[in-house]
Design goal:
Blueprint (H helix, E strand, L loop, with lengths): L1 H12 L13 E2 L7 H25 L4 E3 L7 H12 L7 E3 L2 H22 L1 H23 L4 E4 L3 H12 L7 E5 L2 H9 L3 E4 L5 H6 L7 E4 L4 H14 L4 E6 L5 H7 L3 E4 H14 L1 H10 L6 E7 L15 E7 L2 E4 L13 E7 L4
Length: 356
């Protein structure tokens, strides 16, 4: 029993050290999608163009070809010869016999035949090419991924978190989604995100997602125990990253904090508070929703202090300041410790959405 568990652990730990081609299907780098009809249409057009180009070449040099029939070579005969030649059928009833015709066959028609065959077997070659292209993209990505954001779980919470980050100016290419559900990862890839398939509680999967070099980590797992384990593993791999985690029950907040989360959002209690507020003052909920939507209306953001604001009061800045972050600690705007703004402070303020 122990040896079997050891073998499973060994296979998991080999994942991060696997060659890039072995990670195709585990790591997916997004790219522009093309409909199957359009891809087939392009191949058909190329095949027809190659057929007509070959037919014209043969017809222009028709005196250099011999037919089993005594009549001169027509354009139909040229198309017939081109079709059977490009498809390598080659009945031999029409053959080049002059040196010029054979030279044209060698230098032009033979390469066209090769390209024509590539079109015919394009599906198989496209699969192989796609795997090679993905392996190359995975190699480049693994060598360059730094200071990105890893999102663990792409359910409703994870997807909403990604939408908020993109609305706040983060590029989709700087976000990596980790999930074990292939269908969910398909949706994430369609959104232009890099995806890694696997169990986020395993250190090898998180290493593959570049957690060790990430600037921030969002834990949006569906279960609290999964969120705790994923946070603990991520913190072990990256002691410096900002980890934001979501849980369902408030009683697990201290576990998330002990596991290394910088911020913990209790989804059930937050939703409950909004429901309670909405019964009396529904407009307040609308304002909160507006503040939490960065690409419309108003939004809560954080910025560096302008040199002209140093020494002044937070309430006298050009923005509506809600708090001051000093040496990593958030102070409310009415806190006596932040009566004056110091160099190096960061201001938590209300700004207009990006769409305005």
């Amino acid at each position: 029993m122990r040896s079997r568990g050891f073998r499973r652990r060994l296979r998991s730990e080999e994942l991060a050290d696997s060659p890039d081609y072995a990670l195709v299907g585990v790591v997916r780098i997004p790219e522009l999608q093309q409909s199957p009809g359009r891809a087939i249409g392009k191949r058909v057009v190329f095949a027809v163009v190659a057929l007509f180009a070959t037919s014209i070449l043969v017809y222009l040099d028709r005196d250099g070809y011999r037919d089993v029939q005594p009549n001169p070579l027509s354009f139909l005969d040229a198309m017939y010869y081109s079709a059977v030649t490009l498809s390598t059928t080659g009945y031999g009833d029409i053959t080049p016999y002059t040196p010029s015709a054979r030279l044209i066959n060698l230098l032009i028609i033979t390469p066209l035949r090769v390209l024509f065959l590539i079109v015919l077997i394009g599906t198989t070659l496209e699969v192989l090419t796609e795997r090679s292209r993905q392996a190359l993209k995975i190699q480049r990505w693994r060598n360059s991924v730094r200071n990105h954001t890893v999102v663990i779980g792409y359910g409703t919470k994870g997807r909403t978190a990604v939408d908020a980050m993109i609305g706040d100016g983060i590029k989709p290419a700087e976000i990596v989604v980790v999930d074990s559900d292939p269908h969910i990862l398909e949706a994430a890839a369609a959104d232009g995100l890099v995806t890694v398939r696997g169990d986020a509680t395993k250190s090898d999967v998180l290493r593959l997602a570049g957690v060790a070099h990430a600037a921030s980590i969002v834990v949006a797992a569906n279960r609290d125990d999964t969120a705790v384990l994923a946070t603990l593993t991520a913190r072990e791999l990256n002691p410096r990253a900002k980890i934001v985690a979501s849980i369902r029950e408030s009683e697990n907040t201290h576990l998330m904090r002990q596991s290394g989360a910088n911020s913990v959002v209790v989804s059930s209690e937050t939703a409950g508070r909004l429901l309670g507020i909405a019964t009396m003052t529904p407009s307040v909920v609308e304002v909160i929703e507006d503040l939490l939507t960065p690409d419309a209306g108003y939004a809560i953001a954080e910025r560096e202090v302008d040199p002209t604001e140093t020494g002044g009061s937070p309430s006298h800045t050009r923005d509506i300041v809600l708090g001051v972050v000093r040496r990593g600690v958030l102070h409310r705007v009415d806190d006596s410790e932040v009566e004056q703004i110091e160099a190096g402070d960061r201001l938590l303020y209300v700004r207009k959405g990006q769409s305005e």
